[in-house]
Predict the 3D structure of the following.
Amino acid sequence: MMRTAAAALALLSASVGVSGLTARPADPPTSGPRIQQYIPPIPARYQGQLLTKRVRHFPKKLLALTFDDGPDPEITPRILKTLEEHNAYATFFVRGDNAERHPELLKQIIAGGHEIGDHSYSHEAVNSVDAAKEELRKTDDAIRRATGRDVRLFRPPRGVKNCELARQALKAGYVVALWTISSADSRPIGPDVIASNVIHTPNPGDIVIMHDGEGHAATTDALPKVLDALEKKGYRFVTLPELMGEWDRWLTQHPKGASRTVFRTR
Ligand SMILES: [Zn+2]
């Protein structure tokens, strides 16, 4: 009896130990102004780098879904609910002006275990160094005020990688992340087309662009179809820092793969 109880106790503490090591804390934060969620490090090889393609031959069936232009009080909660139902994690590239208006949505994004990146303040092209720095600073301030998080990712508006915003972000050490699969959901297309654009032919390690924000109800309708179909193909959905961590581990174990990586410096 004692042995059984001891064994049960040992098992219990082992499982507690294991769950303590898992990437995501089981419980929401209980105290303090800073929201304590799992924050994966950005591997050194990606800091201050432009990410335009996936790592070729990366074998793990992981995808990074990204949602640009939010947060939005109608759309963001719907995206979050669907992600939660599928145990999926994503990255939200928010606009600073929207972030300032909806700090509660940023908190919800982080509480769901997702990542937030900077997508400029105004979504306008800016030409001067000072204006670009100001766009980054104002957006990051809004994110930090709401979540306590430092911002490590940037995506330029419309994916323009040679703009002043991207240059300043790279200089400041952000990962400037574009995408490798487009849902094309900034066009007026229906959920079925959006979904099939994503489901079409993903490869392990792809980065998918979709849109949050006003007018993107079709994207929220497409999302369950995307998740259902790709789950059936064995895919899991992770944040960009998690994906970079997996890339980094794989490249470290397969140094020859490093010569085939397709991210590049500024
Ligand atoms: Zn955008």
User: Anything to note?
Assistant: Residues 1-36, 260-266 have pLDDT under 50 and may be disordered. Residues 68-69, 119, 123, 157 surround zinc ion (CB under 6 Å). The two ends are 65 Å apart (CA to CA).
